[in-house]
Amino acid sequence: MTLGQGKNGRAPRRPRAQAGSGAGAPSSPTGKRHSARSIILRTLAVTVAVALVGGSLAAYLTFRADWNDVRRINVLKDLGTHRPPNDPNALNILLIGSDSRAGANEKFGAYVQGQRSDTIMVLHIAPGAHQVDVISIPRDTVVPILSCSPEPGAPGQRAESTGYVEQINATFAYGGPGCLWKTIEQTTGIHLSDFIELSFTGFEHVINDIGGVTVCLPVAISDPRSNLYLSAGKHHVYGREALAFWRARYIGEGSDLQRIRRDQFLMASLLQGIERSGLLHSPSKILSVIRDIAGHRFITTDTQLTLGQLVTIADSLRAVSARSVQFVEVPTVPYPGDPTAWVEWEQPQDAALFKAIAHDTRLPRISKPRKPAIGGPPALDSIRPAKVNVTVLNGTTVSGLATTTAANLTARGFHVVGQPSDAASATYTGSVIEYASKADLPSARTLARLISHVTLEQNANVSPGTVELILGSSFTALTPAGAESRSGSGSHAANPTAGTANLAGQYGGIRGNVGICSDASVFAGPDGTS
Q1: How far apart are CA 225 and CA 469, in angstroms?
Q2: First vs last Cα of the chain: how many Å apart?
Q3: Distance CA 406, CA 470 (A)
Q4: DSSP character at residue 128
């Protein structure tokens, strides 16, 4: 989903839409929206290189001087005293990306004014540092407009009535990191401890410092806008090319939500590369990375984050493996005021997710089934299985998976059309249900209730009246009979009785040890070639 920038490069604000009103909002000029989606990777790069490393006393003493060069912002005046309770056994760090073109970043387009937090994540370190969860918040999410004080590069903003909302990345544009921090705490109930921000140039330096990162493309990318040209297959890329990869536009369905899922695979690849390189066990390599980003002022933090705290965090996380890191995108649905541009958090899934992160507890039971995060006018959630025509394709290397699944669907009352066969690619992780138009959306939703980790995608090449099921490697079996109404559908469907230990499975995310070439579905769509 996309959203144009308003005056001075900032995202516009709008009155809150009433659910079901269908009220549109005026369009905005198109700006440099997608370019900063790479901030997710930039932020994780600094997190892995700084937070997920072990530091010796010698490294601590040597780096102390460089730490003084880090840019810091006092956010306490925005946070106030009425904050969510702090969990003393866990740690939540706000990871912010700024697309500011100030200083060394002017090479990316000095004509782009202001700053936006086009990528936002919460890094949750579980008690005992046995697990790390990276929760991505879509930049197009609408939030209430809170009162925020001015900060360097941000003029501040006044609170608006409950009838008005703004895009979450606009809170950073108007009020700086303190305003974004305050907004997240007040709307999620998650107590944040610190924030870390990294720039475009900082991202390039970090990637170069750690020796590059491997990407795996199911299709070729030729994007003159970002100056990125890569053939299908694996590539080991460095700073400029890695940044260009995440600035590339018109890939897949062209939405920010799908872009986040692509970013997750690159972050996993980055994490795996760091594990293999032995960086975590080399103080000299660690110091080289930290000195580079700190000495050149590529990193910004809050004034409360001390070097001692950073080293303590780093030391406690030395044993965290890639498998123990989970990447999850916050579930969203289209915002009624502008369903093609903005999104809002989906309930009750998000309330359960936020509570689990805030208290590191098990997810509470959810009785209300979710609706898939798909835009367009309201449609029936489901129809009778006998009226659903479905073609089954195998998007994995598991022999006979499409055949057995087709037989099981027939036994459950679905009308299987044609012979089960292999998909064009065998590298699907999550399953995909494709449908031709909104008229077939009820059929797609009915089928989705039987499939875990599934994404619904509109594809005009699918025959009208038929939906196409592409099975991914995460698929093992259909949802047991009688459980469909409780399981929900869509890639973010949550198991209401499971805990944070399996957030990736519950919300359609991935773990850090995922196969980086199993990401074909996150490139699929009308704007891509897959």
Answers
A1: 34
A2: 19
A3: 11
A4: G
Integer Cα distance of 204 and 90 in angstroms: 31
H helix intervals, 248-304? 256-277, 283-295
CATH of domain 385-491: 3.30.70
Q: Nearest 10 degrees: CA dihedral of 392, 397, 398, 402?
A: 10
The pTM score is 0.66
Cα 83 from Cα 454, distance rounded (Å): 36
Cα three-residue angle 462-259-241, rounded to 5 degrees: 120
- How far apart are alpha carbons 440 and 173 in whole angstroms? 40
CATH number for 39-359: choose from 3.60.150.10, 3.30.300.90, 3.40.630.190, 3.30.70.660: 3.40.630.190
Domain ranges, ordered by start, for the chain: 39-359, 385-491
* Angle, CA of 505, 510 and 516, to the nearest 5°: 145
Query: Whole-angstrom Cα distance, residue 218 to residue 112?
Result: 32
**How far out from the chain centre does Cα 20 lie?**
27
Q: Which helix (H) or strand (E) holds 247?
A: helix 239-247
For residues 435 and 456, the answer to whether their CB atoms sit within 8 Å is yes
Sign of CA dihedral 42, 100, 208, 287: negative
3-class DSSP assignment, residue 195: strand
Q: Is there a contact between 239 and 228 (Cβ–Cβ < 8 Å)?
A: no
**pLDDT tens digits for the chain (530 residues)?**
333 344 344 455 665 554 433 333 322 333 333 333 333 334 434 444 343 333 445 555 656 677 777 888 999 888 988 899 988 778 899 998 765 334 443 443 333 334 446 779 999 988 766 788 999 999 899 999 999 999 887 888 999 877 789 999 899 889 899 999 999 999 999 999 999 888 888 888 888 988 999 999 988 888 787 788 899 999 999 998 988 887 776 777 778 888 888 889 989 998 898 888 877 677 667 777 777 877 677 888 999 888 777 766 666 666 778 888 999 999 999 998 888 889 999 888 888 899 889 988 755 443 333 333 333 333 334 578 889 999 999 998 888 899 989 988 988 889 999 999 999 888 887 889 999 988 888 888 889 888 877 888 888 889 999 999 999 887 888 877 654 433 333 333 444 334 567 777 778 789 999 999 988 878 877 655 44
Whose CA is closest to 469, among 378, 392, 357?
392
